[in-house]
Write a structure and sequence with these properties.
Layout: H1 8-15, E1 39-42, E2 46-50, E3 53-55, E4 75-76, H2 102-110, H3 115-118, E5 120-126, E6 133-134, E7 139-142, E8 146-153, E9 156-163, E10 169-175, E11 187-196, E12 201-208, E13 214-220, E14 230-236, E15 242-249, E16 252-258, E17 262-267, H4 269-272, E18 278-285, E19 297-301, E20 313-319, H5 321-324, E21 333-342, E22 352-362, E23 378-380, E24 383-387, E25 398-402, E26 407-417, E27 421-431, E28 438-445, E29 452-460, E30 466-474, E31 477-486, E32 500-503, E33 519-522, E34 530-539, E35 542-551, E36 561-566, E37 570-574, E38 577-578, E39 582-589, E40 596-600, E41 607-611, E42 615-616, E43 622-628, E44 635-644, E45 651-660, E46 668-670, E47 685-686
Parallel strand pairs: 4-6, 19-25, 37-45
Antiparallel strand pairs: 1-22, 2-18, 3-14, 5-35, 7-8, 8-9, 9-10, 11-12, 12-13, 13-14, 15-16, 16-17, 17-18, 19-20, 20-21, 21-22, 23-24, 25-26, 26-27, 27-28, 29-30, 30-31, 31-32, 33-34, 34-35, 36-39, 38-43, 39-43, 40-42, 40-44, 41-43, 44-45, 46-47
Length: 690
């Protein structure tokens, strides 16, 4: 047993050499199933070719979208495709205790410094307004000069084009269908806006009315969405492609949809960018047993570097195994599932869908208490109507970013904390070289105030800073929009900016369908500014939407440089000994790949340290090895680790160490020594330690 991360009571037990043993016995006839078998599916479930139409007009000359007026009808857009939930067994292993990540975040919130005041909010304007449809399904992305936002409307999807410099409206509101022909001239919505940073092109997408089952994709002919023209594609889906989401990675466009299975699509991007006939390939991901609504989320590239050549399409979802395979659940962890699709447009029979690649995460709880047959689960102020937490999906979009030393994926989902409060579980996955994707950090964001935080968007800027924006509502708060975030060198798993409201809601929302998604992106010009769009309660039970941008002022160093990150930055120790190694990684930007020299700041008497390598490069990890001698002062210590490289900005990471004193001997009261037939998760009881 390592002497770090121990309570004072356990410190005392170790100091007095008091040991005890538990014989667990047999917990159940069922075994804990940590993994779901990985499968490989070859070929394609559907293949089609689409021939594009052309739109060569100026958006400012199009007929405006119809404006909703009080007294006009209000409808629910695009009822979700819901399948029967499979019969599932009761959880064989009971989950005990609260989310283990909450206390860490609450401590970070309590100890936050001045980072919140340093985050600069730039554009913060109302976007498209209520138009007689619930939910709005708010989406938007940022390009070189413009920001485009889109929502559901009575005539499909409506969109606005804004000047990103000041938020001035350039064109809109307009209907996407006004640039389409054929079946895609009659649409139902579920829009997605995407800026393809590698090609400097725009995608506007929605689906047609339910009968023809068309995926409608508009690709801009140039980087100018206003007057540069568009290619208009119609791709045939075999069934209604509910909840479509899009991405670009590795030179291919991908999409996902909630169908009879969870469908994944690949589109021939190279030909779509030229306005040529393009192929579509479809495959199917097996559904999760406990959700009637199944849609996996595509991973989309942000930043100047695409994924390495040969990278397949990547897709992600979460698996709460108490809900989905509860007859063999693991009570201490749940899972992210990564899936990949490698399409072969020349020979679709060679296409390959592979997964799941299981990545263990801390326990999540996807089972909310909801009212009636609808989606309402979350309380809001002054309204009996409860709101949909969107518990079924990793929220759009999963973001990929490539650094010189590693690749990252960030995403977020909803987990229940307390009796029925929604919190955001956010995560970062990493891989280096040929290694597998692995969990780098995760956190559960709540402020412990009874308010829900959900329907989030998360992204990482070019420096490795992470921002999370979301809706928030609760017993004393109307639906509002807020954000928090972290500096790349902060303690892993914590958001440290402090919560900041982008817009305070002034009304409840009268429909449980309060929005199926929000969207976060990063400005492709400065690679620093976060852009977020979502909805809030505006007036008379109706929603409004918001478009906001903000950035960390430290982001955007024009010179080559690096960032540092590390594991095990917060440790505790009993009196003396070796800490767990602090594993340090560096990531370069602006083509930095020079040597980085490591050193310690001034250490307290009794604390010493060395490195497994004093000099290292991005992509090659090194360990800081720290020792604590007998007689070192009891209490909290700060250990600075500095990175230096000629011509680059100095970087510092901080490790926090708590040294605990030896206390009186304690002994376990329960379970008793040599106890048998004890639960795999026993409740430990100790005598008082003072």
């Amino acid at each position: 047993m390592h002497p770090t991360y121990l309570s004072r009571a356990v410190c005392a037990a170790l100091a007095s050499s008091t040991l005890f043993f538990i014989s667990a016995g047999t917990a159940s006839a069922q075994t804990i199933n940590d993994t779901v078998s990985k499968s490989v599916s070859r070929g394609a479930k559907a293949v089609s070719i689409a021939n594009p139409a052309h739109f060569d007009g100026d958006l400012r000359q199009l007929k405006p979208a119809k404006k909703w007026l009080p007294g006009d009808p209000v409808k629910v857009a695009n009822p979700r495709h819901i399948r029967d939930i499979q019969t599932i067994l009761p959880a064989v292993n009971k989950v005990v205790g609260e989310d283990p990540l909450v206390a860490k975040q609450l401590a970070a919130s309590h100890n936050k410094g001045k980072k919140a005041q340093n985050v600069v909010t730039e554009v913060n304007i109302d976007g498209l307004g209520f138009n007689g449809v619930n939910p709005p399904d708010t989406t938007g992305d940022v390009g070189l000069k413009y920001y485009i936002q889109s929502i559901n409307s009575p005539e499909g999807s409506a969109f606005n084009v804004y000047n990103k410099a000041d938020g001035a409206l350039v064109a809109g509101p307009l209907n996407m269908a006004s640039m389409q022909t054929g079946d895609c001239a009659n649409t139902m919505g579920d829009p997605v806006v995407l800026f393809d940073e590698q090609a400097k092109r725009w995608l506007l997408t929605e689906f047609s009315t339910q009968g023809p089952n068309k995926l409608c994709v508009l690709v801009s002919k140039t980087e100018d969405p206003v007057s540069g023209g568009w290619y208009a594609y119609e791709f045939q889906a075999p069934s209604f492609p509910d909840y479509p989401k899009y991405s670009q990675i590795g030179g291919v466009y991908y999409a996902t949809a909630n169908e009879n299975q969870s469908a994944v699509y690949a589109f021939e991007r190279e030909k779509m960018l030229k306005g040529e006939p393009a192929a579509m390939i479809r495959q199917e991901v097996p559904v999760l047993a406990g959700f009637g609504f199944n849609s996996i989320t595509p991973i989309d590239v942000d930043g100047p570097l695409d994924a390495p050549q040969g990278t397949p399409g990547l897709f992600i979802r979460h698996r709460d195994d108490e809900l989905h395979n509860s007859g063999a659940n693991n009570a201490e962890k749940d899972y992210l599932e990564l899936w990949s699709l490698a399409p072969d447009f020349n020979n679709p029979d060679n296409s390959k869908l592979e997964g799941p690649f299981n990545i263990a995460i801390s326990e999540i709880d996807s089972k909310f208490t909801c009212n009636g047959p609808g989606y309402g689960c979350l309380e809001q102020a002054e309204e009996t109507q409860t709101l949909d937490p969107l518990r079924e999906v990793v929220m759009y979009k999963g973001q990929y970013r490539r650094f010189s030393g590693h690749e990252s994926i960030v995403g977020n989902l909803i987990t229940k904390v307390g009796s029925n409060t929604a919190a955001v579980r956010w995560f970062e996955l990493r891989r280096s070289g040929e290694s597998d994707w692995a969990l780098h950090q995760e956190g559960t964001y709540t402020e412990g105030d009874g308010n829900n935080r959900y329907m989030g968007g998360v992204a990482m800027d070019g420096d490795g800073n992470i921002a999370l924006a979301y809706m928030t509502t609760g017993p004393s708060r109307f639906p509002s929009i807020a954000f928090n975030g972290r500096h790349h060198a902060d303690e892993a798993g914590t958001l440290t900016f402090g919560e900041q409201l982008l817009v305070e809601g002034t009304s409840p929302i009268s429909s449980d369908r309060d929005g199926d998604y929000s969207q976060m992106g990063v400005d492709p010009v400065d690679n620093c500014t976060f852009w977020f769009t979502s909805e809030y309660g505006k007036q008379d039970g109706r929603w409004g939407t918001r478009v906001s941008s903000f950035k960390m002022p430290s982001c955007g160093d024009p010179n080559p440089g690096f960032t540092l990150s590390a594991t095990n930055l917060s440790q505790e120790i009993c009196v003396k000994g070796d800490l767990q190694p602090v594993t340090i990684n560096a990531s370069g930007y602006n083509e930095f790949n020079a040597d980085i020299r490591l050193s310690y700041g001034q250490l307290a008497d009794g604390i010493s340290g060395s490195f497994s390598a004093d000099t290292f490069k991005p992509g090659v990890a090194t360990n800081a090895n720290i020792q604590v001698a007998e007689g070192t002062a009891i209490g909290d210590h700060r250990i600075e680790i500095k990175g230096l490289s000629d011509g680059a900005r100095e970087r510092t990471i901080v490790a926090k160490l708590k040294i605990m004193d030896k206390v009186s001997e304690v002994a376990p009261q329960s379970p008793a020594n040599n106890a048998e037939q004890v639960s795999l998760q026993p409740t430990l009881s100790w005598s008082n330690d003072n």
